[in-house]
Amino acid sequence: MTPVSLEKVASVRRDVEPPLSVSEFEAAIRAVGPERYHDLHPFHHLLHGGKLNKGQVQAWALNRYCYQSAVPRKDAAFISRIHDRELRREWLHRVLDHDGHPPEEVGGIERWLILTDGLGLDRDYVISRRGALAATVFAVESYVTFVREQPLVVACASSLTELFAPKIHKERISGMLEGYDFIDDKVLAYFKRRLTQAPRDSEFALQYVLKNAKTRDEQEACVEAVRFKCNVLWVQLDALYNAYVAGNIPPGTFRPEV
Question: Of 28, 26, 7, 9, whose CA–CA distance to 17 is shortest?
Answer without folding.
Answer: 9
